[in-house]
Amino acid sequence: MTSSGKFNLAEVEVLESRGPTLLLRARGRIDIHSANLFEADVLRATAGSESDVVVEASDITYVSSAGLRAFLRISRTLGRNQRNLHICSLKPYIEQVFVIVGFDRVIPLHADVDSALTAAGDRSSGNPSQ
User: Fold this and answer.
1) Per-residue pLDDT tens for 46-101?
2) CA Rg value for the chain
3) Residue 55 bridge partners (DSSP)
4) CB 7 within 8 A of CB 29
């Protein structure tokens, strides 16, 4: 919660396009109040790109079921265009939720940006590392 008493809602920023991969940073809470906007922001940031997408998530503080649904919908939207979503640097308590609900079998989770970029780049070059 901020000093004004409001929760920090999700934000998305494009960090860079590295080779065949677009790197985004997400921060804040992804919940019922912000999930749809988060999804729209990610899809807008990736529109017109043919790249796989890595979301650096170390600054995400909370993900509700609505947030999980947003990640799944982003993954499916990208997948329709033969693109993958990768998530890296999740806080352990958030990563545990992704694993418990089985999202780690649908969306690749990585410990850090470098491993996510490597996995995304290997897949894009036809050299699957997963």
Assistant:
1) 988 889 999 999 999 999 999 999 999 999 999 999 999 999 999 999 999 999 99
2) 14
3) 24, 87
4) yes
Could you tell me whether strands 21-30 and 11-18 are parallel, antiparallel, or unpaired per DSSP bridges? Answer: antiparallel
Number of domains making up the chain: 1
Separation between Cα atoms, residue 17 and residue 94, nearest integer Å: 26
For residue 35, being part of any structural domain is answered with yes
Beta carbons of 33 and 67 less than 8 angstroms apart = no
**Domain boundaries, position 37:** 11-124
How many CA atoms, within 13 angstroms, populate the side-chain half-sphere of residue 39?
A: 19
What's the distance, CA 42 to chain centroid?
8
For the chain, the residue count is 130
